[in-house]
Amino acid sequence: MFHTVRLVDVYKAYDNGTKALKGVTLRIDDGEFVFLVGPSGSGKSTIIKLLTSEIRPSEGKVMVNGYNINTIKPGAVPMLRRTLGVIFQDFRLIEKKNVFENVAFAMRAVGASPRDIKARVPYVLDLVGLSHKARRRPHELSGGEQQRVAIARALINNPMVIIADEPTGNLDPARSLEIMTLLERINALGTTVLAVTHEKELVNRFAKRVIAIDGGRIVSDKQGGYYAHEQTRR
Ligand code: ADP
Fold first, then answer.
1. In this predicted structure, what is the pLDDT of residue 92?
2. pLDDT for position 233
3. What does the pLDDT read at residue 3?
4. Which residues line the pocket of ligand 1, CB cutoff 6 A?
């Protein structure tokens, strides 16, 4: 099977000496849905920054969608990032652009033709249930709707992996459940999903693989809910 993400004995020390990762080994295969959970400061963002090649490991090996993050050349980083769709807690939409344009922009950025944009944007807006709000601007939408626009944008160039960094951090429980359910559906359509979250109840609603990290080390990696991890902790 193709390994979408692979970390082998990864250590990361920041310039000030903080050891953020202390020997992390993990593998995510094509088509998986994985939750990455752990307390604040445990190293979750560091893992995401490695995957997007914002930082390099101090030791160990990181492979993402066939790219070697240890040796990737700056010129290849945009190509790596095209294989990833990233979603953030704060949505990061462009306020001056409407929904259609926010999504189309990401296609223009990679040189897609107007014809392809006209065909693809309505398809992904339909997928996230926002066809009827294509002409609205972000401030005219609820938080849940804004996050769905961000998901459409992340999907627009057909990435291999969606990385969702606390995607429900600004949403109420009902909206959070909708967003995770949408990510689950996108996963069922074939995209690998890595979702970082603090929300135990939410994680437990989905019988997915949960990787728990604490103090820069993986403390649990198993199928089926966060509390499975809680019970096995010392
Ligand atoms: P999480 O995302 O789980 O909250 P992080 O990966 O952001 O954790 O942080 C892991 C550790 O690395 C923490 O101790 C944090 O303070 C530290 N850290 C994160 N980014 C930097 C940085 N740029 N420079 C120094 N230390 C950092």
1. 95
2. 47
3. 74
4. 14, 16, 18, 20, 38, 40-46
Q: Which of 14, 51, 55 has most ligand 1 atoms within 8 Å of CB, for mutation?
A: 14
Q: What is the pLDDT of residue 228?
A: 56
Q: Which atom of ligand 1 is nearest to the CA of 40?
A: 4
| Ligand 1 center from residue 214 Cα (angstroms) | 12
pLDDT score recorded for residue 153: 97
Spacing, Cα 77 to ligand 1 middle (Å):
22
Q: How far apart are CA 145 and CA 30, in angstroms?
A: 28
Q: Measuring from atom 6 of ligand 1, which residue has the nearest CA?
A: 43
Q: Which atom of ligand 1 is nearest to the CA of 43?
A: 6
Can you give the residue ranges of every domain in the chain? 3-83+160-233, 94-158
* String of DSSP letters for 122-170: HHHHHHTT-GGGTT--GGGS-HHHHHHHHHHHHHTT--SEEEEESTTTT
Instruction: Give pTM, 2 decimals.
Output: 0.94
Q: What is the CATH number of domain 3-83+160-233?
A: 3.40.50.300
pLDDT at 171: 94
Residues of the chain with pLDDT under 50: 232-234
Strands of the sheet containing 217-223, edge to edge, are 84-88, 161-165, 192-196, 33-37, 209-214, 217-223
